Prior knowledge:
Order of helices and strands: HHHHHHHHHHHH
Strand content: under 5%
Number of domains: 1
Amino acid sequence: MAEPRPAALPPAERTIGQLVAESIQFYGAHFWACLVLGVPAAVIAVVFKNVSRNVKLLLAPTLSAALISATFVYACVLVLEASPSRRRVLVAWLLGWLVFAPAPFLMIAFVVPGLIWLAAFGLVVPVLIVEDVSWRGALPRSWRLARADFTHAIGSLFTLAVVVLLSQSVLVFVLRDFGDAADSVGLFLASVVLSPLLFVGTALLYVDQAARVE
Length: 214
C-alpha cells in the first residue's frame, strides 16, 4: 500500500527537498503555462552548442542574460500570482539582466562564486514583481532575503540545477547515436521540458526566504 504523503512544511521551514518537490508539483499542475518558460532556455542551449567560444562570450551577458531575465520575470508573475504594472515588469527585467549578465563568467571561473552571486542578488526580480520596493532598494532587499538562510538559498539553486542538468544529460545521451542533428534536437526538447523547474523553483525560493525574514 502506498504510504500517505507527508504534510508539507510552511515556507519558513521548507527544506531543499520539499522545495524541489513543490516545484515539480506546481509545474505539473500548470504544465502548459510553465512549458513556455523552457523555450528561451532551450534556444540558448542549442545556440551555445553550435557557436564558437568567442561568440558565447559575447552572447552570455547580452542576449542570453536578457532572455533569462525575461523568462524569470514571467515565472515570478505565474508562480507568485502577481499583477505588476508594466513599469515594474520593465524594471524587474532590466535589473534581472544586470544580475544575470556576469553569472556565466562566475560559473566558468568556479561554480561556487556563481551560485553565491545568484543566491545573493537573483531574487531581485521577484522582489520587484511582488513587493512595493523602489529599484534602488531592490538589490539590498534581495541581499537581505539571501542572508535570512544563505545555506537554503545556495543549496536550493544547486539542487535545482543538478536535477535539471543531469536529466537533460540523460536524454541527450540516449539520443547521441542518431547523429549531431538528433543531439541538438534532444538538447532542445530536454531544455524545453526540464528548464522550467529552475525558474519555478527559484520563484518559490523567494517565498521561502521572505518567510524566513519575517
